[in-house]
Amino acid sequence: MRIGILGGTFNPIHIGHLILAEEALSKLSLDKVIFVPTYLPPHKSVEGNARPQERLRMVKLAIEDNPALEVSSFEIESKKKSYSVETLKEFRKKYGKSAQLYFITGSDLLKDLFSWKDVNEIFKMSKFIVANRPGYPVTDVPEEAETVVITPIQVSSEDIRRRLKSGRSIRYLVPEKVREYILAHDLYK
């Protein structure tokens, strides 16, 4: 089995995340992609008022109609700082040695990659995939990593939160069920 693992705050999940997952499925010949919302990221703070369980719920809403996409609550349920190496160990236990794990990240994270906890262990446990992200050139990719070219789309969770705070529309930037959830729960105002 070939399993893509896509971690992040998903604060909120948006169409860029979904396009990345869908294109990774096909370009890497994956059986599925698992979204792993972080509880508390080690390298940045979680902006806005969406609690971890709400971010998890939005991911579930965003992917519920695609059987090739799943969500894991592992990091949310841990209730501690989320380290990718620990998540990969958990997935290795769950899926066994025969599963090929593909750890997918965006080119925006390359600059901090070697500050990650046990990054060399991550390289050993998975195929490390770097996807292009607008505004972040795919340069200085470590030899342990592979790249995948994804349709570039200029959308970010930060911009979505900014739009919501100023009362602007986010229609079509997030799945409709996610937009409705955000509005119903008064998130990011």
Question: How are the SSEs placed, and which strands pair?
Answer:
Elements lengths: L1 E7 L6 H13 L4 E6 L14 H12 L5 E3 L2 H5 L5 H12 L4 E7 L12 H7 L1 E5 L13 E4 L8 H9 L10 H9 L5
Parallel strand pairs: 1-2, 1-4, 2-3, 4-5, 5-6
Helix pairs in contact: 2-7, 4-5
Q: Concise description?
A:
With 189 residues, the protein is α/β, with parallel strands linked by helices.
N-to-C CA distance = 42 Å
Helix content: 25-40%
Number of helices: 7
Quaternary structure: single chain
Shape: globular
The rounded Rg comes to: 16 Å
Strand fraction band?
Answer: 15-25%
Class from secondary-structure proportions: alpha/beta
Arithmetic mean pLDDT? 95
Biggest sheet character: 6 strands, parallel
Give me the side-by-side strand order of the main sheet. 3-2-1-4-5-6
Taking pLDDT < 50 over at least 5 consecutive residues as the criterion, the unreliable ranges are none
Instruction: Give the tally of β-strands.
Output: 6
